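haha ok so turns out i had the wrong file open the whole time. this is the CORRECT one, sorry everyone. sequence first:
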Amino acid sequence: MASIRIVLYKSKKRSDGKYPIVLRIIKDRRPSYLYLEWIDEKHWDQEKNKVKNSYHSASRLNNYLLKKLTEADDLILDFEANKKTYTSSQITETLKGRKPSKLFFKYSEEYFEGLLKLEKYSRVIADRGRIKKFKKFLGNKDIRFEEINQPMLNRFKMYLVTSEKKISERSIMNSFVVIRTIFNKAIKDNIVEQKYYPFGKNKVKIKFPETIKIGLEEDEIRAIEELDLPEKSTIWHTRNIFLFSFYLAGMRVSDVLRVKWNDIKDERIYYQMSKNKKVDSLKLPLKVKLILDYYKEDQRSQNDFIFPELKKAKEHNEKDLYIKSKTATKKFNHYLKQISEQAEINKKVTMHIARHSFGNIAGDKISPHMLQKLYRHSHLSTTIGYQGNFIHKEADDALDSVLDF
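then structure:
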């Protein structure tokens, strides 16, 4: 329950020596003030919190103060009775006759609902979790956009660092990106003014740290290929999925699982990327054909998924497809750990490492423009930046030339 009181606010003083009489509302230890009148301190009764009779229109002013106090009390009782979330600022804004701005977390849910209608399930699941952490940091209370500022976000960062085990700087920045995205949309929707934007120059800056991308070497891929695994076992199937991805330039696992038999035409694979909906086509390498041969006996129709993970999914239900793909990826990563141990690979091997491995082995053997097509990047600069993680020969040779004495 909020506390409300009429006080003489001595922290503010006008040039004429007068102080403001304010309606002070405190909710969840957050104060908000509604300025009502300015008077000399000598006319204020500190004990009774009212204007002294020495003031020329004390009766009229005290009635006005009582009216505002009653209005605030009624508003709070209404919120409490209807179990509505509110802030002290909302009460003062309403008393001013202004439409109170939407609350951040309420607006966030509207934003996520919009993404769900667009079937952006992976994004919603990841970003909702990040916003949930922000809400937990604030004691599960909703706030106005105007209350989100640089000091608050700095405290949120420290909260994540101290409360989350092994949280990376990238994960923290991802949380800030979601808050920024929602803030930008709210500005566009005229929910909050641009002047309250807490990001940018001289404010909160979002800068992602560089990450080390390590792929497998040729001999390590060969070691995985040559492992003697029980045919039809889960670990055997996991190897097939990993190599299928690697052989096709690191095709994302979500795309691998969605490949159907009718996507194979004239010894090429045609597919739509689930991440950006781009359509692409690649020649089927011999090693991919050999993997496909293993799964032909389970083919039910031309429209059937090649791999078993999505065969029981609701085909046109994006949410179901996403959840089953996510579950499968977790399973694959579990078995890839066993595969790496058996192959004596001293690197963390996950489905995403298939993409890094292709980049590492490709090195500078393939032109950036061709790699751009294979990776399905929109911009060549993205390809060059990504491939830069794996091309070290010139730097290595330069180092050797200096130390070769």
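Residues 104-196 form one domain.
again sry for the mixup
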